[in-house]
Amino acid sequence: MSFLHHAPAGQWSVACLAVDPNAAAIGRHPHLADDRRPGHVRVDLHSHTMWSGDSTTTPEELEEAVAAAALDVLCVTDHNSIRGATELAGRLPCRVVVGEELRTHAGEIIGLFLTEHVPFGVSPREAAQRIRDQGGLVYVPHPFDPLRRNLAEPALLDLVDAGLIDAIEVLNAKTALSHLNERAAAFAAEWSLAAGAGSDAHVPDALGAAYVEMPDFTDAASFLVALRQGAVVGHHFDAARQWRARIVPST
Fold first, then answer.
1. Domain residue ranges of the chain, discontinuous segments joined by +
2. pLDDT of residue 46
């Protein structure tokens, strides 16, 4: 497992400690048992915590789930917020990429490697430009899944034409219809966009459902290069949270 430390110059210094996923996580997501390729890391590009509003996953639960799945990098992409990601960076037993899944007037866009919150409700072009202006990457989640508040196709094409998309999510573990993920993969190939994958986890057990196994990286630029060399791994997983009495801290 890799641990993230923020160096003074803003680069990442990485110390590696090999950890294997546990039996329970492998039972949920059998591909976790596959051997890692040397020099590669497992990166979930899309996940949620209690800061999202529609997820109740606490930091403690996230710590346990990340350790169980032995993920190397987690992109924390809460809805319209980067607060959870910034608070969790350095706390989780993996490296954290600060992200945000923000809703534009035409659907959702994810910004990765953010330093500032991007406001809710702006246009797709403004959202993408605000992400780029802070050195971030523009990642389009579940582009053709209408149940996931996908980005409307005219807006998607407009961003592609403007050169404002870095990567497309070609495997969203919560997307039940496989042809929607396949359409996303075909779109990414057609437009020569990097292909990403994520659990879209709103419950802890979903972590490990989907990720990209890719060469290691040090910053946003090398992340994008490595993503293009990565392999998408995962399956559909959208299990409901089992009810139990619990207290979720206020965010």
1. 41-234
2. 98
Question: Does position 86 have pLDDT exceeding 50, yes or no?
Answer: yes
Tell me which fold the domain 41-234 belongs to.
TIM Barrel (3.20.20)
DSSP assignment of 39-53: TEEEEEEEE--GGGS
Query: How far apart, in whole angstroms, are the C-alpha atoms of residue 61 and residue 65?
Result: 6
Q: Which of 117, 224, 216 is nearest to 165 (CA)?
A: 224
User: To which residue do tokens 């392999």 refer?
Assistant: 231
* Residue 241 scores a pLDDT above 80: no
What is the per-residue pLDDT across 102-146, written as a single tens digit (0 to 9) for each?
Answer: 999 999 999 999 999 999 999 999 999 999 999 999 999 999 998
DSSP at 209: S
Residue 84 has pLDDT above 90, yes or no: yes
Residue pair 108/132 in contact (Cβ under 8 Å)? The answer is no
Residue 120 near residue 109, CB atoms below 8 Å: no
How much is the pLDDT for 100?
Answer: 98
Identify the pLDDT of residue 25. 98
Q: Over 131-188, what HEC string results?
A: HHHCCCEEEECCCCCHHHCCCCHHHHHHHHHCCCCCEEEEEECCCCCHHHHHHHHHHH
Dihedrals phi, psi of 241, to nearest 5 degrees: -70, 130
Rounded Cα distance between 92 and 74, Å, is 9
